[in-house]
Hints:
Layout: E1 2-6, H1 11-22, E2 26-33, H2 40-52, E3 56-61, H3 84-87, H4 99-114, E4 118-120, H5 136-148, H6 151-154, E5 160-162, H7 170-179, H8 204-215
Parallel strand pairs: 1-2, 1-4, 2-3, 4-5
Helix pairs in contact: 1-7, 7-8
Amino acid sequence: xKVVILASGGLDSTVTAALAKRDGYQLYLLTLEYxxxxxxxxxxxxxxxxxxxxxxxxIIRLDLSVFGRSALTDQIAVPxxxxxxxxxxGIPPTYVPARNTIFLSLxxxxxxxxxxxxxxxxxNIRDYSGYPDCRPEFLKAFSELARLGTKxxxxxxxxxxxxxxxxxTKADIIRQGQNLQVPFEWTHSCYDPDVDGLACGHCDSxxxxxxxxxxxGMTDPVAYEKGGL
Length: 229
């Protein structure tokens, strides 16, 4: 069976893709270059696609920076060194308006073209509780949209939206990645890397990632800026 996987080059989407590969799916990866302030995640996604030996890897370029209002696409400071309580208080400025809605819509179009059975997304509610488009309710609603608005469904071929990591902790995801021999050193999670692509070690995403590796008793193999840990 064919599946489309939203692949950002990050830890979660890579483990998600590895799970689908383990389960025997034929992988069609979709990566979005959406006007984010750094390009490194695109190159990491390309490397991950090669490692997975995917059937096809599409990279779509669109520019969400024209809307702005996100620390990932606009000249807004990325929050650093925040406590757990601070990270759980409200929606962070790294939220990109409607990003998962847009990404899933493009994945849905791709899935219809290649006749995929499902879309896999690495959304995770427990570590990213501030993002409204990572909630189970959102994914359920989008699945209903896919059911109502696609030719394949009308022809009797329903398409699922699957988020296998949705309720896992970051430590659980890392353990799953270990079992699947995921090359963690090729993944990228940082919201604010330097010009060489080194992770900052202080943004919310870096902190969550580092906490997960510490919990499983591992050292994160990616490179961090000097003094970033």
